[in-house]
Amino acid sequence: MITPGGINSSSPLTSKTNLKAVSDSLKLIMTTLSSSHFEIKPSAQTLGAQILGLDLSKALSNDCTEALMRALGTYGVLSFPKQTLSARELATFSARFGELEINVANNYQEPGIPEVMILSNMLDNGKPLGIADAGQDWHTDMSYSKMIAFANVLYGIKIPFRDGVSLGNTVFCNMHQAYEELPKPLKERINGATATHDFSKFWDKMRMEKGSSRPPLTPAQKLAKPPVSHPLTMLHPITKRRVLYANPGYAMSIDGMQAQESQEILDRLFEHQLQKHLQYKHHWQEGDVLMWDNFGTIHNAVADYLPHEHRFIKRCQIMATRFFNDDGSPKAFPPAWDA
Question: Which residue from 92, 103, 96, 91 is spatially nearest to 142, judged by alpha carbons?
Answer without folding.
Answer: 103
